[in-house]
Write a structure and sequence with these properties.
This protein is α+β, with helices and mostly antiparallel strands. It contains seven helices and twelve strands.
Length: 200
């Protein structure tokens, strides 16, 4: 079976930043990023309203778009990047960086950002001083300069993304049983997104 070659590409070449504001109050659903649930209703997650009542100045994110939360959270030392899957749209603080895929498989990005392979690039591009009020000090321009190693074939990207999504689902189901199939989930994460030559 022929294996497609992999190439290095900047995130800004593969995605487009989204900066649309919720000026017409198209959505009144404030979102937050949860490690377990992804982008989720803030009111449910915190059991109270944290966002301002007037969300017209917030970013409007639509289903299928990604958001980067630069805040540290448990298990996410450099923040978290998640795709909006649960709702048609929602609003996020302008502290988030929002983007959408334009020339890359969306499912590949989901699996890629669920790994830790992007940490090194973010850490490299973050300004010295590391954090400002708990937020990683990285500008949007530096964030989109992050380099990824990806298959140069869209179909292959999609297959990689679907493979790891399936694997994650198997692990999640297994974790609810008494007999572990994958005793160390991190061992599977270490295999992600290495070009085939790197695994030889």
């Amino acid at each position: 079976m022929e294996v497609s070659s992999w190439e290095k590409r900047k995130l800004g070449e593969l995605t487009k930043r989204v900066t649309r504001k919720n000026i017409n109050n198209e959505s009144t659903l404030p979102l937050t990023i949860s490690a377990q649930y992804g982008l989720i209703d803030q009111n449910i997650f915190f059991d109270k309203q944290v966002a301002s009542k007037d969300v017209s100045s917030y970013f409007l994110i639509k289903n299928g778009e990604f958001a980067y939360n630069k805040s540290y959270s448990n298990g996410y030392p450099l923040g978290a990047i998640k795709r909006l899957d649960r709702y048609p749209n929602g609003v996020l603080s302008t502290l988030y960086i929002i983007f959408k895929p334009i020339s890359v498989s969306s499912q590949f990005l989901v699996s890629y950002f669920d790994s830790t392979h992007w940490y090194k690039e973010v850490a490299k591009n973050a300004a010295e001083g590391a954090r400002n009020h708990g937020l990683l000090n990285i500008s949007p321009s530096d964030f989109f300069n992050m380099v990824q190693t990806i298959p140069n074939n869209f179909e292959e990207q999609n297959k990689v993304g679907i493979f790891f999504e399936t694997l994650d689902n198997i692990i999640a189901v297994n974790q609810r049983t008494t007999i572990p199939i994958f005793p160390n989930q991190n061992s599977t994460l270490s295999l992600r997104f290495h070009p085939p030559s790197a695994l030889n």
